Amino acid sequence: QEVPFTGDIMTASELLKRLHYDMMHDMDTIIESALSNKRFEVYYQPIYSVKEKKFHSAEALIRLKDEKYGFISPEVFIPVAEKSGAIHKIGDFVLEQVCAFIASDEYKKLGMSYIEVNLSVVQCMQPKLANHIMEILTRYGVRPEQLNLEITETAASISQQALEDNIKDLTNMGMKFSLDDFGTGYSNMQRIVKLPFDIIKLDRTFTELYDNPKLGIVLTNAINMIKAMKMKIVVEGVETEEMLKLFSELECEYIQGYYFSKPIPREEFVKFIQASS
Ligand code: C2E
Ligand code: MG
Ligand code: MG
Ligand code: MG
């Protein structure tokens, strides 16, 4: 909501509200200009495999550095891009960057299993998404097994033929899927079981409450349930040794979080993995 100028000196909180209003007002322009001026960048956050005792994959996360507002969180601009339709261009940009990385010689030496890429709910509904994605992969000589697509729990809960067809087509082509943000939406088990997820990602807002007595019980049982359904688990938001120890003991396969590394630019990521092996 717009904060009107009253002629009085603004308080710090009024000033912040105005800045936020201005930024949201400019967001479509910020996104378009970032697309044409190549100001989007893809960062990578390593994911640790407890069993293999090494970083076996990474999640690609988009970054936008605006000249005026600095780094703007994807949680702010992705919803705007979903409304305007710019998400299709952003999604393609991320896929192309990731495929170019996977196709590079430096990547091949890292011994990664795959890179996880977030798909927006809008992309999931796009007609012929599978062909579109395969066209990009083919152009870079990347195989479907070298990627893993993340779909949020909220998107997966939408009962839409287009979404189901896309996931089915891509699965038939050899693509694997992760369910992102588990524990934040309705955790609609009917939908989750119906769609072919290989991995479930436990959301940070869920895992960071591990020491809450009741939530601890929910978490332990959710982990056992997911394992019994033969799906693998990525624990998000692991920031401490204590959390790493706990979730390793609960036999979760994969750990992601600031404890190991924040999302970092491609060159830094390559150095990080080289130094760790
Ligand atoms: P997400 O897919 O659940 O990604 C995980 C988020 O948690 C990332 O935030 C990551 O930086 C953050 N994170 C990871 N480990 C820790 C930790 O130990 N502590 C804390 N405090 N945070 C941690 P980020 O990069 O700001 O992304 C936020 C969300 O924006 C993502 O959540 C995803 O939903 C969306 N997003 C990011 N990149 C893309 C993209 O390329 N395409 C689409 N469609 N969405 C994206
Ligand atoms: Mg994700
Ligand atoms: Mg996530
Ligand atoms: Mg999330």
Automatic annotation (TrEMBL):
The entry's protein name is EAL domain-containing protein
Residues in domain EAL?
24-277
